[in-house]
Amino acid sequence: MQHNQTPLKILWMIPKWTFPVTDGARVATDSLIRNTVAAGADVDVLCLPQLAEKTEPELMKKSWAVKNVFIVPRPLPESGLPKKLYYLRQFLFKTFTPLTFSSFSDKGLQEKVRSIIESQKYDYILLDGLHLGAALMSKGALHPSFKTSRVIYRAHNLEVDLWKKAYKEKKSPLLKLILYFQSKLVEKFEKAIIDYSYAIAAIAQEDMVEIKKITTTKCELIPLGLNFDRPLEACLIPGVKFLFIGRLDWPPNRDALEWVLKEVWPSVISNRPEAVLKIVGSGNIEWVKKYQHLKGIEVAGFVKTIKDAYEDCHFTIVPITYGSGTRIKVVEAFALGRRLISTKMGVQGADLAESDYINAETKEEWIKILSSIQLDKVQQDQLNLSRAVVAAKFDEKNIGTKFYNWLKAIS
User: Fold this and answer.
1) Which residues does 396 contact at the CB level (< 8 Å), separation at least 6?
2) Distance CA 110, CA 96 (A)
């Protein structure tokens, strides 16, 4: 950007406190904000965290070089009975608002958000995720205050796909009906945000294709970006250790990992007694603990830095079978220099060639690969070749510049 041009002023809305950067959504947000600011944008952040989340505005200003950080807590209890009662009240009194969106549509919160937006002139209001749209909505449409606002929707995935998957898998007729109803509300809400947005920045190519089928809103592929400058050294620890990393209570992650633990790992450990599966992730990990007794299972849970998770592992696994968007852990494996074993669905959005990763789909394929694979010279050489290709597509500086240039071009 030329120095004599006025920077675009953006209010960047995020649904939770980003630090520490511990999961895929936080990594994606952290990377794009830092690099969009570095490209020349003038950014303020509006965070809508849960009441119990600890926030440090000065840390965020320093880490991202943003001008202002506004905090408007959502009236959502952290967990337990208070949270269940909160959702029950929302279901009774906000029946036609998706339950998981309801805390963003609180009237008091909406008024504070409007006040912040109206206090300054922003070129764009950026929604970093679908739920944030509820803070701008009123009776199924954008609140009149925002009719002239240029809203950019950062589409991490197609949210309705997760709800459809959930209701189709439930056996209880009542639960199936409730989830079906919620999926229809999410579908309607998602379509409304897509249509009301000035433009859409999609993380995955597959999502952009689907979005373009249902709207004429401008849409651009802005993939997640990572730093490829500091890969780890090859893991030379004897034996073989596989890494599963991700938010452990996110349904696609939980279902995939539980399938491996139940259907795949017992045969792998029988064939290969020295094998280890390291499980790393944030969120509720209570369900994982019932598998800790299995031989070769190492439940690390939350780790302070991402590199701590990868350093002592030879391979990463992504056995995911549903969901949309791009998995941060897929790109992260290349950025940090680890060979990837994944389903085709797992690498969706990463635009990988067949040689870039090791594909496994069926139970038999997963057992065979995990029981025999070695990190030899052939595997390491292929990783080095693939890593260079992936870096060219997902380097965070390039992504930040592309995003900012696109925003300038459509302004």
Assistant:
1) 31, 32, 34, 35, 225, 226, 227
2) 17
Under 8 Å between Cβ of 158 and 130: no
- Characterize 315-329 residue by residue with b for buried, 16 or more Cβ atoms within 10 angstroms of its Cβ, and e for exposed: bbbbbbebbbbbbbb
C-beta separation of 371 from 274 below 8 A: no
Residue 385 vs residues 79, 289, 331, 355, 382: alpha-carbon distances, Å: 45, 38, 14, 10, 5
Instruction: Go through the domains of the chain in sequence order and give each one's CATH number.
Output: 9-225+396-410 (3.40.50.2000), 241-394 (3.40.50.2000)
- Alpha helices (runs of H) in 325-395, residue ranges in sequence order: 328-336, 363-372, 377-394
Cβ atoms 153, 193 nearer than 8 A: yes
pLDDT digits (tens, 9 = 90+) for 39-95: 999 999 999 999 989 999 999 999 999 999 999 999 999 888 999 999 999 999 999
Contacts of 21 (CB under 8 A, 6+ apart): 27, 30, 306
DSSP characters over 55-108: --HHHHHHHHT-S-EEE--B----SHHHHHHHHHHHHHHSTTS-GGGGGGG-HH
Structure tokens at 395: 């380097």
CB contact set of 74 (below 8 Å; sequence gap of 6+): 48, 49, 50, 51, 103, 104, 106, 109
Under DSSP, is residue 145 helix (H, G, I), strand (E, B) or coil? helix
Kind and range of the H or E run holding 64: helix 57-64
Tens-place pLDDT, residues 225-246: 999 999 999 999 999 999 999 9
Report how far residue 231's alpha carbon sits from residue 391's, in angstroms, rounded to the nearest whole number.
11
User: Which pTM does this prediction carry?
Assistant: 0.86
How far apart, in whole angstroms, are the C-alpha atoms of residue 160 and residue 180? 10
Would residue 408 be called left, alpha or beta, if left means φ above 0 and alpha means ψ between -120 and 50 degrees?
alpha
Q: Are 320 and 253 in contact (CB under 8 A)?
A: yes
What local confidence, expressed as pLDDT, does residue 179 receive? 92
Q: Rounded CA gap, 156 and 153, in Å?
A: 9
Contact between 102 and 135 (Cβ < 8 Å) = no
pLDDT tens per residue across span 262-279: 999 999 999 999 999 999
Cis peptide before 223 (omega within 30 of 0): no
